[in-house]
Structure formats: C-alpha cells, structure tokens
What does this fold into?
Amino acid sequence: MVTQQNQKSLYIKTWGCQMNVYDSNRMVDILKPLGYSPNEDPETADMIILNTCHIREKATDKVFSELGRLKQYKEAQKAKGKTMLLAVAGCVAQAEGEFIAERAPYVDMVFGPQTYHELPEMVANAIGAFGKNRVVNTDFPNENKFDYLPNEQAEIGASAFLSIQEGCDKFCTFCVVPYTRGSEYSRSVEQILDEAKRLIDGGAKEINVLGQNVNAFHGEDKLGNEWDLGKLLFAIAELPVERIRYTTSHPRDMHDSLYAAHRDLDKLMPWLHLPIQSGSDKILKIMNRKHTADDYKRIIDRLKKDRPDIEFGSDIIVGFPGETEEDFQATMDMVDYVKYTSCYSFKYSARPGTPAANMMGLVPEKVKSERLTRLQTRIGEHQHAFNKKCEGLIMPVLIDRESDTPGRLVGHSEFNQSVYISGNERLYGSTVYVNILEGTPNALRGEIVTDEIITTKTG
It folds into this structure.
C-alpha cells in the first residue's frame, strides 16, 4: 500500500510518435503501485524517464544534451542526501543502449520499448535491492509486454490512445523501426476490446487505434480466428464511443474490410494519415516501399468514393539519395493531387544501420532545404484552403483542453483540425457544435452554437 511517507514523484519527457505517448502513459501505470505519481518538475523528481525517438536527425545528440541538463538535478539531489533515478527509454535507448551507458554513467536505467513492463524489477535493481547499480535492458523478450501491463490506467483523456500492433516487417531503407521496435506483432482481439472498454468507462470519447503499421493488424480472437483492422474497427464501433481514428497506416496494407469501415462507420472519422514519403516511382522503389504513385492514387480514389468527405495527412521525405528535380516535382504533383490537410515533411537524414545510410547520390543540403521550403509552402496552401472552406460550417468539436489564453478552449474537428473557442472548463471532454468563424493557416476559430453534449452514436 502506498502511503504519504513513501509517495514519490515521476517526471517523463516524451519525444516522437503517438506510440511513445501511449508507452509513457503505461509507464506511469506500471510505476504507480511503487508509489510514483506524475510530476511536472524534473528538478525535484525522484525518477526521470526520457522516452526517446530515433526517427529524426541527431536524435542521440538531443538525448545527451538533455541528459547533461538533468545530471545537474541528479547531483543536486545527491548533495541533499536524496536519490534521483535517471532513465533513458524508447527507440534511442534500444539502438544506442550500451553507448548511452558508457557515455553517461550517471544514467541508472536504459531500456527499450519492448521491456518497460519490467520496470518494477529494473527499479529494484537500480536502487540496489539486488546488489546492482546499472540496468541496461534492450533485449526483445520472448514474452508479450501487453500481457504484463496493468489493467488500471491513471489518466484517460477525452481522446485516448489504444495500441493494437507494434513493430514493422516492411524494412523501408530509410527507417529504423524494424530494428528498434522489432518485427510486427498484433495483440489479441479480447485484450484490445477489454482495454477499449476501460478507456471508454474512464471517460474517453475518442479512441485512437495505434500501430507502427496499424492496418497490418492480424490479431486472433479466443477461438483462434484471425481478425484484420477493418473487422476490429467494426467491433470497436459497437462500443459506446463517439469517435474512432487509426494511425499509422501503410498503403500496402489497405484491404476490403477497411474500405468498408470507412464507408459504413460514422464513428470512424473522415480523416486518414496515409504516408506516401515520395511521389516518384524511382524513389519509392529505392525506399523499398513496394508500391507505386499510381497504386497510392488508386487507394485515395477508392477511399474518396467510399467516404466522399474524407481528407488526408501524410509523411514526406525530401532529398532522399538519388532524388532529382524531376523526382521532387512528382512529389509536388502528388501533394496537389491529394491536397493534404496536414503533413509531416522533413529533409532526409541518414539513420545509422539502415540501408539508405550507405547509399550514393546524396542530395546537397542546400538543395534539400530549398525543396523542403517549396514543399511546405505548397502543403500550407492546401491546408489553409481547406480551413477557409470550413468557414460558416457548423462542426462537431471534441474539447480536449484549456488554451494558454484564459477563457479559451481547444478541441479538434472530425478532420483533426485544432479548433479554438471561448468557454469554461466544464466543457472539457465534451463534444459541442461550433460555428466556424475563421480558417487560419493552421487552425480554426469558432463559437459554440450549443453547449449540449452531442449524443453518442451507436453505429
């Protein structure tokens, strides 16, 4: 039993994707029985965890920079006779575990994304309960971590994450995920639906179904029958939840029942993040994406046929090895074809250990920067145009949080746009009708038409 005397504070800094956000939340749940509760002040925390991402350039350098700052807090606590545990988790830890332990000996625990369910044992080891002082745990364990996560979940917001699938077997030449998250694994159907029910009972109005390749999901039910993502979404839609989303999907894994879900489920939001990476067939082949630009367009066209109001987001890399101006123009053409309403776009940077890291034909940094500017300008034009189209519409908006401005709230639309309104905290977690007054380049501004909670749909 946790008492006031043994209550401890926990600070977690999270970088990267929604999967990392989910993992950080579950670390909180795992550590709660040990007496740890979340704290926003790293300077006074009893434990600090950096949950890291290895996707972007200089990810490891950023971790060491942050560790240098946190080291001072750890030393200050030690001078007061107190112990601060410092941990590095996530994909940088998985890829650089031994290097982190060697370069930053003051770090107590280093563990990857597949082993955080072992945190109680790692903490015991780190504080010396078994005569050890350093923990480096970056194996891919035989057991499934989801079988060891607690049912109780501490904080459930209006929009909740639900991880159903991890890892990747695609081996895109630029990507570290297969090496840091392992091969594709899908949770059981019962496990997923049980967690979905707990999230809804805890107040979630929207469930974001997560996976590295979420539409590659192939979990089994208790009878051993294999389900795909489309069938799973139909089952989740039978629960009393208002909204469903899923991310991140791969074009190769779209399937008939998933198209049917987009067509038939009002609860499945009309916005999909579907990464293209490049609009050039030549670059897509070098990336090992195993689909063409026309394949991707056919997917977009079919989704629009099944769900005419659907909009799209994407990921795009510019300056991949071998990319010519013609290849880049093909990407710009794809942006104009789809008219993405949001996009994560960035310059290619080599990730150590990936095939692309050894490729020839590197694009000069100046050229990459110039192309990125052109790309982001074009994407911004499409995003702003879509936001302007929303002016005058009455849209259902799920209120997520308070704005930094007093008396203002922030929610998101069915199309995943941020929406700013006036209101008080009693509306937090509610879905309200909003008259959109202005579409800015990055968000919407509106006023509440009625503050009644929209009735939860049943299908």
Q: What stands out?
A: The chain has three domains: 8-137, 149-389, 394-450. The two ends are 42 Å apart (CA to CA). Residues 455-459 have pLDDT under 50 and may be disordered. Residues 8-137 form a domain with the Rossmann fold fold (CATH 3.40.50.12160).
